[in-house]
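Form P-L/3: holo structure prediction, ligand adenosine monophosphate.
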Amino acid sequence: MTCLFCQIAKKEIKSEVVAEDERMIAFKDINPVAPVHILIVPKKHIPSAAALERSDLPLVAEMIWFAKELAEKLGIAQSGYKLIFNSGKDAGQMVDHLHLHLIGGKRLERWPV
Ligand code: AMP
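OUTPUT (holo model):
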């Protein structure tokens, strides 16, 4: 099974990486909805939030921490941002590999987005 975000994590497909460590990669969304739109992606293949197991909890916490630190680095910590997990069909999840959207850099009026 080929997974787009696994391929990006392995550098088999190019992306604009903004941060990375041994468990996580963060790169610019190819179709940004705001001046800052980053995807935070665990290198472990987990299909969605719905597929999470309790043992994945530390990884999810790390994803949120990654987002918090990136928001500071990118200068949007004070102005604010959204963190979004899309899970499944009704949420419009397009890529079946767990990812957290970090979106900011402008006033995001609408909810839900
Ligand atoms: P979701 O709807 O939550 O599954 O979001 C998937 C996101 O991945 C969308 O916002 C897409 O724009 C983004 N995306 C798809 N392909 C790529 C790619 N090759 N590089 C970066 N972002 C991508």
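COMMENT: DSSP finds two helices and five strands in the chain.
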